[in-house]
Write the structure tokens for this entry.
Amino acid sequence: MIALMPGVASAQSASADVSARAPAADGDEGLNDIVVVGEKRETTLQRAPLSITVVGNDELQRRNANELNDLNGIVPGLSISKSEGSARIIAIRGIGYETSANPNSQPGVAFHINGVYVAHVMALAQDLLDVERVEVLRGPQGTVFGQTSTGGAINVITKKPVLGEASGDVALSYGNYNYAKARAGLNIPISDTMAARVSAQYLRHDGYGKSIGVANRSEYDLDDANNLGLRGSLLWQPSSAFTAILSAQTFDTDRNGALQKNVLDTTPGARTVDQDYPSTFELKTRMVDLSLAYDLGEFATLKSVTAYQYMLKEQTADTDRLAGSFYVHTVRWNDRSKAFTQEVSLASQAGGPLDWTVGGFYLRQRALKDYLSLGSGPALTYQGMPIVFATYSPYQHTSVAGYGQATYHATDALSLTAGLRYSWDKTTGQPINFFNQFGPANPRRVTSDAFTGKLGVDYQITPTNMVYATLSRGYKPSGVNFNQGSVQVPQSYKKEMVDALEIGTKNEFFDRKVRLNASGFYYWYDDYQYTAEDPRVNSGGSWNIPHAEIYGAEFEASILPMDGLRFDGMLSLAKGEFKGDFFTIDSQGALAIRRAQAIALGLPQPYVTGYGYNPSIIAAVQNNLQNTNGNKVAKLPGVQGNFSTTYDADVGAGQLTLRGEVVYRGSFNSRIFDGGPLDRVPAYTLFNASVQYAPHDSAFTFSVSAQNLFDRNGVNSLFTDPYGALTTSVEYVNPRQVFGTVSYRF
């Protein structure tokens, strides 16, 4: 298993821009080694016995990948979408985050920055800052590092200060939609034992879409950007045995909302909508972390990572996403989170017959969800306006874990691995709904714990050919709901467990001119967490589907057929479905039933959500439960593929690099239901291209890149509001982006 702790002990070495999908023709010696941080120590990608993909900084910049959502199409089995245009929903092999409406629930894919677990899912909307590489691990994680996960983990590893070196880099980009990006980094030597690195990134562009219905605005931009990120690190290394890195990072964005088009919106053009309420989005994230490493000699290395995080997200939205008399407007949606994490680990020195790691992890998060939506129709009132839904619900999450893993090198070729983890989680919350007009809700408290682990074996057939097999278990903690007066959905939900079997092989052939990695996996899923509708409107929450099974295969390949020419590709095949009878409510079906019952009862139209408290309507919805048995697991494309060709050649006084790429993502269901057009996300194929010229003996590099070259309106995801408006909206991939970049390194 690959750890997500950055190698702070090796901070003196310059940051290597490593990428599993780097374009460089690696030379006569074949493909370059790709270094990852493994089991609290560095190892190469080809010797790591699990599925992991590494994306380097150059690849991120060439693809204009500024945030996590831009990693779509690069990594096998990875799918990233937006919920309500704000939360990033990450799924790996179909295991993700189907409870985004409940902020105290935990995602299935753990996101880290330099080994620090990011505690609130809304913080995942921040830009990637001063990145060296991104490591994406597939499968349950947790026996050698901090936060456990059921689906996998993403770790962003930033560039570190370097002792004794004055260096820096600057890049300026400009493109269509008035796209402008400026980024700079500076390494500052302070003394023989101290160095600092500071970096800044500013990004802005006009909206990729527009609304024509906002009052007093002929056009209202959507999907624009106005982002500023700052990062600083201070390295102190008084001896070869001790290293300390203190880092601070901030990110701010203040922009209009995301473009999400209601499927009922007939406005011409995929990126033009008719919405009558301005959508806005503001996000502030702050993080300070201290990494310490002490070399205990031949025995082990002791490491500590301490971090504090703050996040504030403020949002408004046209929730029904239609102009007209039927409306639901989210006039306030604020999420606030403060979190403290501490991890301590002890890892043996490499080179012996037994490698081992033991450690402990602690998380304490205090957060708040403050939400108010107003609408038309019969309802409670707030300042003279009908309330669709209102909550002011503080909650806390505490997590404590101990873990350990050991690898025994039985021979030079054969290794056996065993890992164990114990996790304990407590979540408490105090729902305050509708300003307590229904009376105060009781406080909520739930605890869960689990033993998880890993058993693995890997065999190095030759120095460049390896096979491995792992059996691992992942855990996602239970939590509380903020519902009140529910008929069916409980006030808390159970923990989620995944047992995963993976068999894989990693190979290099023909003097390392060909690299082929492949894996097959089978997952047994218990108590799948999802967002459940209740017969009584606005009383749903997170719940559990008892069983699901997921299986598939993944392939990654790189080929150097001749000097200067390189082919890269990946293919992911997967299938998943729910097993056994489980009956729940499809919110879209519930909406149709409520409308029909309102008509039958002679109630005013068209707004019927407020009638969800009518006993006759509640009974009608409760009598129309849907069986999930045989439904497809959400966010799981059956096929994903990527193929690229890169050519390097000396042209004139510099090196010219040409690259073309095709990305295919197959169709999948956006929810746990199979509601046809309301759930089925269609397949898309996108084409990307770039040209780069680097003059010899020059610090400048010039490039032009085009993403979505043929301007396809590919659908990235569908979003169905689980409460309130209950509308379904389309989220598109970014339109064609063409931009030029001038960069300078010194």
Remarks:
- The helical segments are 57-62, 587-600, 615-622.
- The longest strand covers residues 385-409.
